[in-house]
Amino acid sequence: MTDALDPEDKKIVTLARSARARNAVPEGAAVRDETGRTYVAATVDLPSLSLSALRTAVAMAVASGATSLEAAAVVTEAPELPEADRAAVRDLGGQDTPVLVAAPDGTLRSS
To answer: DSSP of 35-73, one letter per residue?
Structure first.
């Protein structure tokens, strides 16, 4: 599981898992901004709009006035996280912002 993570990072993984499960979608994500606020999102898949959960969470943070990110988490079955997702985090958070990638059971696969 996520036992090795600090409590704040464990929290965003848990929030991402719950968003995925609650909405029955492929991915759930959560990001934490510079003030400690969290933004939780799920995959958006409409005929005219398709966004990954992580890009949706970053967009929510930006729309709410966040100016940087401390951390991001995504829960997915996908073997790899698309570069566009990591790029969205870097755009707001910078090169060193950790992106925690977890399996649906919460097992951390990469950071």
So the answer is: TS-EEEEE-EEETTEEE-HHHHHHHHHHHTT---EEEEE
Q: Where are the domains of the chain?
A: 7-110
pTM of the predicted protein model? 0.92
Phi-psi region of 32 (alpha: psi -120 to 50; beta: other; left: phi over 0): beta
Q: What is the pLDDT of residues 40-92, one digit of tens each?
A: 999 999 999 999 999 999 999 999 999 999 999 999 999 889 999 999 999 99
CB 73 within 8 A of CB 50: no
Class of domain 7-110: alpha beta
Both tokens of residue 104? 């649906």
